[in-house]
């Protein structure tokens, strides 16, 4: 069987990207800058209200965005998520494979493929309205243990913790990875995920994780502090290696409690923060899989994230494969 750099597990969602105004969010009553789970009727109401706006489709979900950006950097990966045999499901599989990621979870005939309406305002903030659809029925039976064992890293998203069956699939993946010597990387995904499942996330981090990916707000939520320094110290006390992004300030990386700051890259024009954290994780995982140092892996993560925020949506329009030495130098 082919070897993969990363075995990804997460929600399989078709992203519907729409540029809008703050006034639209206020009119609809949505809290800006966060992800909200909605039912299909609510999402349909939002899409109806957006009639006349340009919409773009992408295969997505947090961990899926990471896997696609990983392939863009030159990494290899296989992704596990659940779709239906509807039009969106067919689009999802084809789009993932066109991006260079293996996606072979059999579609199901009932239900609808999950969708996420991503509303991006002029300040580049994104507000996400997610209908999980059939993605919430992912189970332990969908985890291909042979492909997991043929991978260097398992990467899982915190959004899996919202549904019992996806939670079980997450734990099984982590347990089997540890048994097989596959490194486990977990992203907290969103401060609201952390608040909803704080004690579970602490336990997962301590018992299973070799690597954690989070941003400052997620780390603060887990640590119960307003200090980013104390936050990363707390997460670092639970996990050997922690990557904590800090927006334009770059990122912090901790190895066995030794915390270093790695500067970011300048951004000419900030257009959309969708997928910034996902892209950082992709860059860092690529670096780790290629044997980069932690600092160099973090630096590449910073670069990939700096490029994605200059795009609309979570997909890079430029190819980064083979450009690491050109961009980072030989150091």
Automatic annotation (TrEMBL):
PROSITE patterns: PFKB_KINASES_2. CDD domains: adenosine_kinase. Keywords: Kinase, Transferase. Gene3D superfamilies: 3.30.1110.10, 3.40.1190.20. It comes from the Bacteria. Pfam families: PfkB (PF00294). This is Adenosine kinase.
